[in-house]
Amino acid sequence: MMSAQTLKRAAASLALSAALTLPMAAQAREAAPTAFDPVAHERVVQVSEQLRCLVCQNQSIAESNAELAVDLRNQVIEQVKAGKTNKEIIDYMVERYGDFVLYRPPFKSTTYILWIGPIALFLIGLGAFYVNLRRRKRVVASEAKPLTADEQALAADLLGEKKE
Length: 164
Known about the structure:
By secondary structure, the protein is mainly α.
């Protein structure tokens, strides 16, 4: 059984292969070699999986079929062909589109809220829950009155307890 990650990689590889071979086939009149260097292809997939589709926002550019994602994939392909390293390609994309294009933005002053925000919200919620429980406990304790003898007898009768 294939994992979801394996299926995503296979789909991304197919999409990238199609993106690479279609322009070559459209330009050539004879059968041209369509094989892309496997190492370069793997680099394109790795870089594409690290970059967020700016249209879809919940998919990488390797998974997305949005027009902008296709353009970004083509930019990655061209930069890989130009011999740039993965870091240079990612730095170029961040320079052009900002940290939002990364799935894992760096921890710095402009992105700290992305990293600390969920923890802070959880702690605030936990604190509010604790304060609410203590307040309820005080309210219940202040309103609680002991049962009178008649109320105790009625409760015992309703519960089927017999005094003997």
